[in-house]
Write a structure and sequence with these properties.
Order of helices and strands: HEEEEEHHHEEEHEHEHHHHHHHHHH
Low-confidence stretches: none
Largest sheet: 5 strands, mixed
Shape: elongated
Strand content: 15-25%
Distance between the termini: 52 Å
């Protein structure tokens, strides 16, 4: 004769002195309820020290959400005993399926797996739970995992900010440049974020003094934070950020000039994209325009020369010599946006030149930032900054 209690005992891998007492299916709610108990006179161990043979002090009725049984919600109910240890007092006896969240371990594993590819909102709808409970579950696992991270080998870090929502609510991300791994994230994009990073690292076996190299953009806040908290570290300003600022200067020249030069309209990407990414007809148009006396063409040539310095300078000394010549050319070009950029370059000279020693860039961070923004887009909001950081 079919014995459903024995079936669920085997399925849940329950061992004596525990047993499935009864199983009920509620047709109205579409819920399966599994009731587990323990044999009379059972002895348990202390969950703190493992001392065995302890009598039951009392019991607490507890319920856990389990994996669905087909399309139906399943719940485990247990008269959870508490043992009394002579050394550690009274504590709930551990269960093989449970956790402190009200979900079974298998249910939590499912949630964490789904969170890697779905929004929490969708997960909550799929499993029929409040998304606040799902967020708490994820936060707990992330925090527990992060607490045991070991950063004793970290020597090179990259710093970048990313927006948790469009236009505001920034988060600063810190990456181990050797492992291409996020090791810390915190709200904001000011100098205090770097101070918080420094204060956090000792909890992960990382002495701040071991940080030798830092890669970041030329943000005044990041510059200030690095100087105050890691004055001994070599700071390299990301070359892609430098070229980005140069591109912005070129585009400003184009926008001012196109008011008087109709040929420049709708040519923005010709001057900004690498030539390898342009179509043949775009290349032909660019070739025609760049050989004219246009101010934009002059700014474009300055940009190409700057890129060549990054690509071809063999060492720090050669870079300093060539870059100084480029700077003298730029400040005399009479193109206001380019002159302004050249002054920015001069004001950040040491960090820019350091690239030719360290070769550090924020390319790794840009890749990670792209993943983070994909997660943000998929989630369509995180309710609060802590949830956003948990999904980094």
């Amino acid at each position: 004769m079919f014995n459903q209690e024995s079936l669920f005992t085997a399925a849940l891998m329950i061992k004596e002195p525990l047993y499935v007492k009864k199983v009920e299916f509620d047709k109205e709610t579409g819920e399966l309820h599994i009731y587990i108990d323990f044999r009379a006179g059972s002895k348990f161990e202390c969950p703190i020290c493992g001392a065995e043979g302890l009598p039951v002090h009392d019991t607490h009725e507890k319920t856990w959400r389990h994996l669905n049984f087909f399309q139906y919600k399943a719940f485990i109910h247990f008269r959870n005993p508490r043992s009394k240890c002579p050394d550690h007092g009274i504590h709930l006896v551990s269960t093989p399926w449970g956790s402190g969240t009200g979900f079974t371990l298998l249910f939590e594993a499912l949630i964490l797996q789904l969170a890697m590819s779905m929004s929490v909102k969708k997960i909550a709808e799929l499993v029929g739970e409040n998304d606040t409970r799902i967020w708490r579950l994820i936060q707990r696992h992330v925090n527990n995992s992060y607490a045991v991270e070991d950063y004793s080998d970290v020597k090179k870090i990259g710093i970048d900010e990313t927006a948790s929502k469009r236009g505001h609510n920034y988060v600063t991300v810190f990456v181990d440049m050797d492992e291409s791994k996020v090791i810390y994230a915190t709200e904001g994009k000011d100098s205090e974020t770097i101070k918080r990073f420094k204060e956090e690292m000792p909890y992960h076996n990382c002495n701040p003094q071991q940080i030798e190299n830092i890669s970041s953009d030329m943000s005044p806040a990041f510059k200030k934070g690095c100087l105050e908290n890691f004055p001994w570290a070599v700071v390299t300003f990301d070359k892609f950020h430098v070229i980005k600022l140069m591109n912005e200067a070129v585009d400003k020249v184009r926008r001012m000039e196109q008011k008087f030069e109709p040929d420049l309209k709708s040519t923005r990407f010709l001057w900004l994209y690498n030539q390898d990414n342009l179509k043949q007809e775009q290349l032909e148009k660019l070739e025609t325009l760049k050989n004219t006396n246009l101010k934009t063409a002059k700014a474009y040539q300055l940009k190409l020369t700057l890129q060549e310095i990054y690509e071809n300078a063999t060492d720090r000394i050669e870079a300093m010599i060539i870059l100084k010549k480029w700077y003298n050319w730029a400040v005399r070009c009479r193109l206001e946006p380019i002159v302004a950029f050249a002054k920015t370059l001069k004001n950040n000279w040491a960090g820019i030149i350091n690239y030719f020693d360290t070769k550090l860039t924020n390319a790794v961070l840009e890749g990670i930032n792209s993943i983070i923004q994909t997660v943000r887009s998929r989630a369509r909001g995180f309710r609060n900054i802590e949830n956003f950081i948990a999904m980094r």
